[in-house]
Amino acid sequence: xxxxxxxxxxxxxxxxxxxxxxxxxxxxxxxxxxxxxxxxxxxxxxxxxxxxxxxxxxxxxxxxxxxxxxxxxxxxxxxxxxxxxxxxxxxxxxxxxxxxxxxxxxxxxxxxxxxxxxxxxxxxxxxxxxxxxxxxxxxxxxxxxxxxxxxxxxxxxxxxxxxxxxxxxxxxxxxxxxxxxxxxxxxxxxxxxxxxxxxxxxxxxxxxxxxxxxxxxxxxxxxxxxxxxxxxxxxxxxxxxxxxxxxxxxxxxxxxxxxxxxxxxxxxxxxxxxxxxxxxxxxxxxxxxxxxxxxxxxxxxxxxxxxxxxxxxxxxxxxxxxxxxxxxxxxxxxxxxxxxxxxxxx
Length: 346
Ligand code: TLP
Hints:
The protein is 41% helix and 16% strand. It is an alpha/beta fold. The strands form three sheets. It has a seven-stranded mixed sheet, with helices on both faces. Strands 9-10-13-12 form a four-stranded antiparallel sheet, with helices on one face. Strands 1-11 form a two-stranded parallel ribbon. A hairpin with a 4-residue loop joins strand 12 and strand 13 (317-321). Helix 3 (60-69) crosses helix 10.
């Protein structure tokens, strides 16, 4: 029986076209600036995001770390949403490696209120750390794949710029946001100084993320990537499928969003499953199984025995993510499995 793997869009496998692109990629030593395929991907990424320059890095986590380090000094403070990926899921790298102090603010469906940011920015005071950077996440993972709109980003940037503070976007799933909002990604990047996005989530490439921004920022990021051991040699084997991802895989994200909607609507109809439907805006669905008197791990273990994989998201929360490997039938199978568990828990 086929497993329905809803743990993450990171489980997507490369397409045949991506694998063929790897075989035919022109390669060189990228640390020496000589891999034509990496350069082509970086140019394409910068162009799609409307920025001067881009840098291929190994992962989303490395992209965030390198980007933060390229825009801050040790001991400075960064403002982030309290459940942002950088704060929640990156092994504390912002403090352990970058030496930064996180200042977390609660957002509404993952979106920070500019007034809260304004109030959190440190005044010039000898006792206090300097606020160096504001980070937003689009889409916001733990809020359930919620989008931050161009208008919201603009308002946050207005506050940032009053105090000459940089605005950075963890845009791991920026294309999901752009597709859901029906805007060009450039609308989402216009008001940020820098960002990263991932190739290896819904876009299905096997490896890689891009750090994007001004020439100066990217050159600082390049040195830091090297320091962190992320300088790669014939990285064209990673870049080649990345180019296919950017050129061919963006529009189909709509299918993932449609499937997520179908899944969320179905879950909402199951007794004692609680779900905030307005937060299901892209391909991530978070729901609460507390009403079944079960914890997330108990629930996902039961689902697993029925051939459906989901992620325990802490406490009684469970996460499901739709992606290229998930069809309508798989959604229906997952819903059937959840129904059976809910009925069995009476
Ligand atoms: N997120 C993963 C897990 O870490 C939870 C997932 O399955 O969703 N920013 C955001 C918003 C992310 O969701 C992720 C990955 C990253 C950064 C880190 O990317 P990687 O996994 O490439 O280091």
